[in-house]
Write a structure and sequence with these properties.
disordered N terminus, 17 strands, single chain, Jelly Rolls, mainly beta
Length: 271
Amino acid sequence: MRRCFLAAGVFAILGLVIFPIISCGGGGSSQSLPASSPPPPPPSTSGGSTPPSGAIVIENIEDNPWLTCGACGNGGGTGSAAQYSATNGTVSPSEDGSSTQFAIAATVPFTNAYFFQVHDPIHAQIGFLSYEFDLFIPNGFEAAPQAIEFECQQKLNGWIYNFSWQANYPANTWRIFNYGANRWDDTGIAFTHFSPGSWHHIVAEFHNDVSTNSVWHDALTVDGVRTTVNIRHDAFLAGGDDQFSNAVQLDSNILPAAYSIFVDRMKVTYK
């Protein structure tokens, strides 16, 4: 996979100042496309950890409008940007009657599509953060991605705490993004390609430590199998106002092959 670089620009969208957050991003016009840290909390019986009492939950995030900043995360990329779309309110496939389809159709290899949402800022250290959703890969697209990426990000007192995951298809591994060093780091967790035509449940758990400006990836749960990660990265000092966001990104492969995914029951839980 071509190494991409974080965009240096700041984008004003809907009156807010947003920093692009995933490492590699795609662009193009939106259109319809063919289909030492404290130990993490104990695991719950349904996968992931039991949220602490009083945690705030943002549910059904996928049903909200998705923003994009075009090729903001693909600095250093050349050639035509990918065509992409995010379509809310998809009835089938869905679990609750309304999923969101993310799609990409690139003409240049290794281009990407980046989608994000902005939430109320979190003005304090996060002791527990869970990003949870269900993922559906249509039949025929099971080998099409270069990577599927997702993340939450907090900016607090000018420090960016970036909580990113990448399912890397060619390397068959899960990686996490080291924002300060501008690189993807292998976690040693094997990635098994998502089987098509069925829903897969993903829970990513994180926390941060403002006293040391640390980002902690605590655990990853895929289809009920929870793996403790416990990897630390440095936060990145960028300045600016407090922010909080979540994102999804599709990366196209060397062919490049067009593909889409569906997301349902997406929620963020934090305290």
